[in-house]
Amino acid sequence: MSTFDHQVSLAKSFLIVIAVYVLCHGVTALLVTPIQNMIASDITVFASLVYLPHGVRVLATWLLGWKAFFPLCVGAFLSELLFTPDQIFSLTEPVLFSSIAVGAISAYVGFVIVKLIGRDQYAGPDRIMDWKWLLVVGAIASVFNSVGQIIVFSGLIVPDDLLAVLATYAIGDLVGLFVSMLVLMMVFRWLRLSAETT
Q: Is the pLDDT of residue 44 over 70?
């Protein structure tokens, strides 16, 4: 593959990551957030109980490695512009870029930690997923993201809500990852069955 073809392929991958991130964030913002807001409005400003973009972070980093940081940042920024209500956006705007960077780097940190213990989980040429280890990576990434977001938003979160927000980040990331992977498994199964019938 020529350098030009590689760059085109990478650009396409970036655009797909951005689009899928925005789509997943939109589903979270338009479906999950209104329901969660009825239950825990103070926490909903900062974290979601089902945060689908965490699955995008993990899968994009699995495929692209550290390069996933860039499209994840763009996707997160566009998502904030499109789906965050003005009053919340103005509240979080001073730390928005820090929050986006923490979220975008979290999956990479998870992959690095897992690699340090001897399990390189990045996609190889065969693209075979080890679902269990990707969930482990996602869990590590979730812990990193949760703690990082608490630090970023520490001046905005009421101290009594810190643990609840931390737990919501962790739960939301993991549930979002699980749902994303479940949907992906169903899509792969459907594609495999479609290929077998033709």
A: no
